Amino acid sequence: MASSYDTDVAVLGAGMGGLAAALSLAKAGRSVVLLDRSEPPWRRVGESFDWETPRFLEDLGLDLEKLVEKRALAPKPGVIVWSNSTHRSNDTYLIPPPSYMRLVRRPVVTFHGNRELLDSVLLDEALKAGAQFRVDRVKEVSIEGERVESIELAEGGKLRARFLIDASGRAGLITRAAGIRYRYLSEQMVSLYRRYSHSYDHKGTRVYCLDQGKHFTWAWNIHVDDETTDLGIVVSAECFKELRDQEGSKEAVFHLPLVAVDLDA
């Protein structure tokens, strides 16, 4: 009797988690459909990867040296923390003894990740392994009993899968359909970032702690290659709303707390 399912697994969202799931399952011989709202390449902020992510990438069959050559990864030997209260930098190096790192199957150095390039590599590998990629949005989730029966797509038609992985990062997609209630355990935060040309000194991630009295803001810059850095800030949603109302735009909010930050400090 023919199966009534369109695929073994439907993966919603082509972020790093969704791409990794699609690649792993396709390599295991499962039929996989990966859905995302937009075509690649995706604009993604650079990330700071510590020892688990490089091992994770190797377990997926990726060669870290080749990823460095492709500029998808940049070596990150440490973290430098700068405070606007002291105007001083504190260097923290993260390289333990190489013999210990080899013993626990971890690389000696950690990395910054250029997510645009890295996600492109993961998608290519997933497609080579047999996964299908479709650009579409989920319009509605149909649930029968304790399982997702089908996914109605914005472009028309339905997708039925034996298993569904929600890697979309949007908590409301499945929770609303299943009637699951949730609450935030801490205040909501807002992240803003931009990409700039800036030479990398190969010291690692820089974190800037900005005490603004009523609110505390932290910023970072992560070099995705030798000449490019992603600079971002994180503020509370309350602070962001106050600043946006005061300054008139989110672009102004982004630049406001960074006037005291010296990238070369």
Oligomer: single chain
* Mean model confidence by pLDDT: 83
Largest sheet: 6 strands, mixed
Low-confidence stretches: 259-265
Intertermini distance: 68 Å
Structural class: alpha/beta
Helix content: 25-40%
The geometry reads as globular
Relative strand content: 35-45%
Q: What is the number of helices? A: 8
Radius of gyration, whole Å: 21 Å
Lateral arrangement of strands in the main beta sheet = 6-5-14-15-16-13
What is the N-to-C succession of helices and strands? Answer: EHEEHHEEEHEHEEEEEHEEEEHH
Number of strands: 16
What features would you describe in this structure?
The chain has 265 residues and is an alpha/beta fold. It has helices at residues 16-27, 52-59, 64-69, 98-103, 115-128, 172-178, 237-247, 250-255, and strands at residues 7-12, 32-36, 47-49, 73-76, 78-83, 88-93, 110-113, 132-135, 138-144, 147-153, 158-159, 161-166, 189-197, 205-211, 216-225, 228-236. The strands form 4 sheets. Strands 6-5-14-15-16-13 form a 6-stranded mixed beta sheet. A 4-stranded parallel beta sheet has the order 8-2-1-12, with helices on one face. A 3-stranded antiparallel beta sheet has the order 3-7-4. α1 (16-27) packs parallel to α5. It is globular. The relative contact order is 0.18.
